[in-house]
Amino acid sequence: MKLLKSILRTLLYIAVMCAFTVLLIVISGANLSDALSKFANGIWGTKLNIGEVFVKATPLMLTGTACALAFRTGFFNIGAEGQFYIGAVAAAAAALRLPLPGMLRLAVAFIAGFLAGGIWALIAAGMKLRFKSSEIIVTIMLNYISVNFLAMAVRTFLKDPKGTLPYSEKLDPALVLSKLVNGTRIHTGILVALACAFIVWFIIDKTSWGYQMRVVGFNPRAAQCSGISVSKSVIRASLLSGGIAGLAGVIEVLAIQKKLLEGFSSNCGYTGVLIALLASNKPQFVPVVAIIYAAISSGAATMERQTSVPSAMVNILIGSLVIGVLLKKYFDSRREGVLK
Amino acid sequence: MLETVFTWSFLTALLSSGVRMAMPLLYAGIGETVSEKSGIVNIGMEGVMLSGAFFAYVGMVFTGSAGAGIAAGILGGMLISMLLALVCVKGKQNQTVCGLALNTLALGITGFGYKMMCNAGVSGQVGIIKVVPIPLLSKIPVIGEAFFTQDILTYAAYILSILCFVFYRYTRTGLSMASIGENPMAADAASIPVEKHQMIACAVNGIMGGMGGAYLIVAQVGLFSDNMTAGRGYIALAAVILGRYNPFGVVLASLLFGVANAAQIRFQLLGTGIPMQIFAMLPYVITLLALLLTSGKSREPKALGTPYIRGKR
Description:
The complex is a heterodimer.
Chain A: H1 2-27, H2 32-44, H3 47-72, H4 80-97, H5 102-131, H6 135-153, H7 189-206, H8 208-218, H9 220-225, H10 230-257, H11 268-278, H12 286-306, H13 313-335
Helix pairs in contact in A: 2-3, 2-12, 3-7, 3-10, 3-11, 3-12, 4-5, 4-6, 4-10, 4-11, 5-6, 5-10, 7-8, 8-10, 11-12
Chain B: H1 2-5, H2 8-37, H3 45-63, H4 66-90, H5 95-120, E1 131-133, H6 143-148, E2 149-151, H7 152-170, H8 172-182, H9 184-189, H10 194-221, H11 232-242, H12 247-270, H13 277-293
Antiparallel strand pairs in B: 1-2
């Protein structure tokens, strides 16, 4: 019954969003059926397009999972964007500069990216626990610091010695993550992303660590009173969450960009926050939401190229969807008499 | 290189452009101070500013007057901040979630609207307002040119910061609005209208944030571009913390951020070997250090970000 209700509610949201999409297309003055067919074409028109949806969804699955884990523990990690970049820099440094044989170097790049992202998030956790600083502000500051750090890295110690532009040299082809499906760009990174979502789901729902994290997220004082260490849970959650967001950066460098450059996250750190929220902070739903988001934004990008409908439509849809979910919660609690 | 840097004209120009770059942050920072003092943290300040910038641009394109542009910018800012008020003050929902969603929403609305204007061929450069030197004061060396040879919106920002300081320090309403951020239950018991004051605080947040965005169009660039606020809303949040929730502190913090940004651009033009991202990074590092150093003595409102529900413990 409960499951049926939640499925019905999700369908209702989807219906409202579809109606809203149609409305926006009409507002923009494009031919509706033409625009919709371009939209659909962008998603499943060719094999390559279908592949692109999954390519786009891969980093979003990771940042979404990272945020979901942190939010469940009551650690408001807005810093996936920064952890993504720090992870990418660490992985690129390891992949480009370490004198190790191929596979070992790849493994070290992954570990370095995970640790760098995790430690980056740990700074915010430490400041929250020790100095009661708002982790929201700290992670936002760290985002900007890491964007600038990356900009510095590609101009100094990771710059291509032969080039003049702020890029690193190309990665050794042996290190590039292999393709999974021929004729698309889908790569093995998506397996890592799915595995992370599964592992985080397992940790949160099936282990005592996860139980402690959930209690801390729900009511830290109650957790403390019943002998659960708030700081241990927050530290574990931040390390894991930052690490997973860092892996998103690692995978984008190793599979898609194949070198280090600026601004390649396309905001997937911030989008991850919204994806986690739309998945009700449940890692098992994150991959689905990420794929839907990636599909909508691929469709909208094609639509923008071929018709007059702006692709910014996606941001309107996602933003109003989250606001709509919040308003629904408000009306629910009003009906139950919690609020007036 | 050093002899180019340490000349009065260089320093004056640096400070002067620092002041200009500080203005959007100052407006938004004051707006955010007002809402945070009443316990509402608006992470959506970025969206408020972006919406303010866009609607100011729309206003100027269609009327050609800066006044109409500013008015439209204010309304654009309020559009976003009042949505936050509806969801978080009335609806008591999570402010961070709502703020982030509003940022995305504003990015969407402005991007969509601007693209449609471009498609319709009604976009183009609009004229920016003139610099009006203040007689006498503008003759002071260095400071005169930096602070008193600016546009009218800059002077308005000085006055608004002073008004904001006076409001919280010396008026009864100011005190009651700040008390909500400290202890809404006690404020409610003292028959202070908590929700009403929080709504007003959100409105002021939108007005000031909208002005901050409008300043970019009306006084600096004269042309909208996608995501043109580029993180200034988040920097304004940092300016509030660094300024320790005091309007004058916010002025100083915004100036620091503005000058650091101006320095970054100027030094880049000089073409030294040092990567200038160090300067760009500096404001954020300073904010983090400030958070560390002021811990324990923090002025942060005690009930910041927690929704107040009457009768709930």
